[in-house]
Amino acid sequence: MTSQLDLSRPQPLLPLRSDFKVTFYDRARLDRYRGAVLQVLEHTGVRFASPKALAILEEHGATVDRASAVVRFAPELVARALASAPRTFWLGSRDGDLDLDLAAGDTFNTTNGCGTEVIDWHSGVRRQPTKTDLEAITRMIDYLGSLQFWWPNVAAADCGDTHTLHELQAAWDNTGKHLQGMVQGEREARYAVEMATVIAGGPEELRRRPPLSDLIGTVQPLVNDKDGVEAALVFAEAGIPVCFVTMPTFGTTAPATKAGAYVLGFAELISATVLIQLAHPGAPVILFPLPVHADPRTAALVTAPLNHRGLFLPTELAHHFGLPAMSGYAGTDDDLPGTWLAAAETAHTLMVAGLVGSELMTTIGLTNRYQLFTPEHMMLDDDLYHRAANAFKDLDLDEETLALDVIDAVGPGGHFLGQSHTRRHMKETVERSIGQEIGPDGAHYRNALEVARERGLDILEHYVPAPLAQDKAKELRRIVAAADAELRN
Fold first, then answer.
1. According to the model, what pLDDT value does residue 57 have?
2. At the N or C end, where does the chain have fewer CB atoms within 10 A?
């Protein structure tokens, strides 16, 4: 059977936007967390494994212990640096028609990132992902309206040391959406900036509407590594937004208490942000606090346990520091798609995500603790995302929707099926999900996993995105080839 998708054009972007404004933490409570973060920065400090970063911080008044590479920050220095960081900015797109405004009040969504396995959708063999796989998955990302920007859903594992640059090339060849790369290292970052400059059309356009942002991880506990901060400095100098992510694991790389782990993670994020603002005042920075759980029996990663206390804190604390936030929601510990656990874990966190108000969010597309891609799981997650997007919309409220005249016309004991009002509005209430496709007998629903796989394969194999201009595509190939020649061992 065909999937009955319209593949002639991509779906319109559908960011999460809640019609209901909710805050969970008052200023006094957020101030206490902020005070604890500042205390860690002033008294404990953060190690910077980059001599370049240490020199910048020392020059601007931070206390630097050269022997240990630990830096301590006075609260006044932190406040001065953060004052130059923009609260909102634009994330540009390849062709300029899919730019994202972080001041719009929307939460822009992307996939889970950097999966390490795929189940080959032709052979059924489970294996490492390739650049060709990422190209196909990127076409899927380009098509789906539930995804408003690109993250490398799987790694280009066949491309060696320069895989992050090959991932950017694969993405710009196959989607017009904003890219968030995962490039580390000063030399690698310079190649990525060169690529982004080609896409933007020059350095000034790159600053005005950067088609690339980059995710830089901190190291727990309380370390900023050399490749991360030196890449961040290169990106910030060019005007490319940097998204700093921390992943403190409760009880192993961070305190076992959630409050303590959040404080530690934010100390890392704020220390990196201060460095960037001292070196390049006004550079765009996003904070991505992503605490994770460890199984107390094995210390293995647990994606979504029952205890989600504190789920709303990271975003509100990032905003309290005056910076935009990225949040990690959804994902499942289950290995294969279509199970109760996979649906329950994804649905729960998606349903709360729209209330938090993060500017950016990662949610869909991988199972097995963010490791495994299958097209059917991407489509099942897409269906759950649409349910969440609808749940946060208020009802239209006017004379037509209140339907008082229709209620009066039908009266007690009557029936509404014959009313013209019903014909106008009934389809609005029954938007069919992926599990409600009618089978060939016209009486029963088809298997949802089967429908999801069919739709996913249809997109992977038949959807054709708008192409990148040939001259730009050629230039990207040249830049990546030069990076391969210099950087591959």
1. 98
2. C
